[in-house]
TrEMBL record:
Signal peptide annotation: 1-21
Name by which UniProt lists this protein: BON domain-containing protein
Keyword Signal: yes
InterPro entries per UniProt: BON_dom, Lipoprotein_DolP, Transpt-assoc_nodulatn_dom_bac
Lineage: Bacteria, Pseudomonadati, Pseudomonadota, Gammaproteobacteria, Pseudomonadales
A Pfam match: BON
Organism: Pseudomonas mangiferae
Keyword Metal-binding on entry: no
Domain BON: 29-99, 110-177
Keywords: Signal
Length: 177
């Protein structure tokens, strides 16, 4: 039986890429995981819901908690709640123990501006796989999540380093190489 070279090339490419790409199931899970984690956190303690500002992001089962909560105890409760959600394979609790930033404050508006600017600059670069990188900015700290090669991570980090308003960069990437 003779195999078409095109078929062999396509099969080889799909095998190589399958190690680098997320499954459709993981992509769907990542859309619902933040709301599940947020709901679990809110159920755990009324103080977490009313006295904290918690951002939840997820990429490929890796979950980030960022924001502010007034006590170390509440930070721990948020982490426990997040870990109890099915599908969370790794958790980064980057909550700061401090009074939450104001909802209408300039800090949150600045964070949104930084995130938008970074997404645009990464997209314009052309060598950065923006579909595999999630950018979250909280209080001037930029968190980078995604499934990328070390070179792609370096390119993305370089863009962030050159952007004004960024206070710190936290890389939470999963590397494909």
């Amino acid at each position: 039986m003779k195999r078409s070279p095109l078929l062999v090339a396509c099969l080889a490419a799909s095998l190589v890429l399958s190690g680098c790409a997320r499954t459709i199931g993981k992509t769907i899970d990542d859309q619902f995981t933040p709301s599940k984690v947020s709901a679990r956190i809110a159920e755990t303690s009324p103080d977490l819901k009313t006295n904290s500002h918690i951002i939840v992001a997820s990429y490929n089962g890796v979950v980030l908690l960022a924001g502010q909560t007034p006590t170390a105890e509440l930070k721990s409760k948020a982490e426990e709640a997040a870990r109890s959600v099915a599908g969370v394979k790794k958790l980064y609790n980057e909550l700061q123990v401090m009074a939450p930033s104001s909802v209408s404050g300039l800090a949150r508006m600045n964070d949104s501006t930084i995130t938008s600017k970074l997404r645009t600059q990464m997209f314009a670069d052309g060598n950065i796989p923006t579909s595999r990188i999630k950018v979250v900015t909280e209080n001037g700290v930029v968190f980078l999540l995604g499934l990328v090669s070390r070179q792609e991570a370096a390119l993305a980090t370089n863009v962030v380093q050159q952007t004004s308003g960024v206070q710190k960069i936290v890389k939470l990437f999963e590397y494909t190489n």
